């Protein structure tokens, strides 16, 4: 009988340590990665993202559009289900948060390559911290370029998804103020996906008294969700949006980190779902989710409810402060985790270098 060494993971912040030797024929399979190992994975992703930005920029553009599209599938499901389900705010928020958006993020994570800007705030920052002093300036340059490109094309992907898959298909209808068609809107095929009102005052009254949102067992609940979200986000204070963006992306980056601890798909999904459910139900602002909700709310008729629902206010009162907050939120995770796991990560690299027979170089400077 052969004695096998069994590894014990008693503390996720440390490397696996040997337990007492046992006589067994059972193969022990690791069920999670340690924190220093996860930090190594995150650094590797950041380095790949930055290298791709500088050597294959078109690939970064395509992967950023893809990320915007994939997350928007989840947001659209949240509107279609959560926007129509739940008689109370709490139930509605829980359903909106839990059924759709976490699925979109899971698709992005399991695609192993799609570039979501909120995640890149974490990945690229870790890559900059881990870079050698002589390479750090180039890493920072690549990071800043990536953030601009990824931000822009995530937005394009989100708007493209709404226009093509939600609006043009009629899955989410549009409010139209047109007295002529209001009188007879059933004759033309192009009017099938529109809800006509004689004037904006008539729509405002129908919307504000709750009749529009409750029509036909919440048939138009998805439109209401978009318009209410767009109005709230286009009219909120700059500082409020910044703080909500920070709280959101702290949880998003935690979701990415936690799923890297897991080693099999079901556990990865659960680790993603928990923080995402938490921050959306709580009311925080996710940048790319907002890049779907706000343009969607404007397109379907939000400006009829409030003239402040427009793209200028979307950028100034939401996209810009939420972007700043998202960077700060990512750093809430990055810097503490770097300080906690840096020594373990460097020790792991040193052991690997020694095992390979190569001299261990100085990895990074404190």
UniProtKB/TrEMBL annotation:
Residues spanning the signal sequence: none
Primary localisation category: membrane
InterPro entries per record: Aquaporin-like, For/NO2_transpt, For/NO2_transpt_CS
GO cellular component, one term: plasma membrane
Key words of the record: Membrane, Transmembrane, Transmembrane helix
PROSITE patterns linked to this entry: FORMATE_NITRITE_TP_2
Keyword Transmembrane helix: yes
Protein's UniProt keywords contain Membrane: yes
Localization per record: Cell membrane
GO molecular function: formate transmembrane transporter activity
Catalytic activity: pyruvate(out) + H(+)(out) = pyruvate(in) + H(+)(in); acetate(out) + H(+)(out) = acetate(in) + H(+)(in); formate(in) + H(+)(in) = formate(out) + H(+)(out); (S)-lactate(in) + H(+)(in) = (S)-lactate(out) + H(+)(out)
Annotated TM spans: 61-83, 95-123, 144-167, 241-258, 319-340
Topological relation to the membrane, as annotated: Multi-pass membrane protein
PANTHER family, sorted: FORMATE TRANSPORTER-RELATED, FORMATE_NITRATE FAMILY TRANSPORTER (EUROFUNG)
Homology family: Belongs to the FNT transporter (TC 1.A.16) family.
UniProt subunit comment: Homopentamer.
Protein name: Formate/nitrite transporter
Native organism: Pelagomonas calceolata
Lineage: Eukaryota, Sar, Stramenopiles, Ochrophyta, Pelagophyceae
């Amino acid at each position: 009988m052969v004695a096998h060494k069994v590894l014990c993971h008693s503390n996720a912040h440390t490397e696996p340590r040997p337990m007492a030797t046992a006589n067994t024929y059972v193969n022990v399979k690791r069920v999670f990665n340690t924190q220093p190992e996860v930090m190594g994975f995150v650094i590797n992703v950041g380095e790949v993202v930055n290298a791709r930005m500088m050597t294959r920029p078109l690939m970064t553009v395509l992967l950023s559009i893809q990320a915007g599209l994939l997350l928007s599938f989840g947001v659209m499901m949240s509107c279609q289900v959560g926007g129509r389900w739940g008689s109370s705010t709490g139930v509605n928020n829980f359903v909106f948060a839990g059924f759709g958006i976490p699925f979109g993020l899971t698709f992005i994570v399991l695609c192993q390559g799609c570039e979501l800007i909120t995640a890149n705030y974490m990945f690229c920052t870790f890559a900059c911290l881990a870079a050698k002093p002589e390479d750090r300036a180039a890493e920072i340059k690549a990071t800043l370029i990536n953030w601009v490109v990824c931000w822009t094309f995530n937005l394009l992907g989100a708007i493209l998804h709404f226009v093509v898959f939600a609006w043009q298909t009629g899955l989410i209808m549009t409010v139209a103020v047109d007295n002529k068609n209001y009188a007879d809107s059933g004759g033309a095929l192009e009017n099938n996906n529109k809800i006509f009102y004689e004037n904006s005052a008539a729509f405002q009254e129908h919307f504000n008294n709750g009749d529009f949102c409750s029509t036909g067992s919440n048939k138009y609940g998805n439109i209401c969700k978009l318009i209410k979200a767009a109005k709230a986000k286009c009219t909120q204070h700059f500082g409020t949006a910044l703080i909500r963006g920070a709280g959101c992306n702290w949880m998003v980056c935690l979701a990415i980190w936690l799923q890297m601890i897991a080693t099999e798909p079901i556990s990865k999904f659960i680790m993603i779902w928990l923080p995402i459910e938490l921050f959306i139900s709580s009311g925080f602002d996710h940048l790319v989710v907002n890049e779907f909700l706000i343009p969607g709310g404007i397109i379907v008729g939000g400006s009829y409810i409030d003239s402040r629902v427009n793209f200028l206010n979307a950028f100034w009162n939401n996209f810009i402060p939420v972007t700043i907050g998202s960077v700060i939120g990512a750093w809430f995770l990055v810097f503490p985790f770097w300080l906690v796991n840096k020594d373990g990560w460097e020790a792991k690299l040193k052991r690997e270098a020694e095992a390979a027979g190569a001299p261990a170089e100085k990895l990074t400077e404190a």
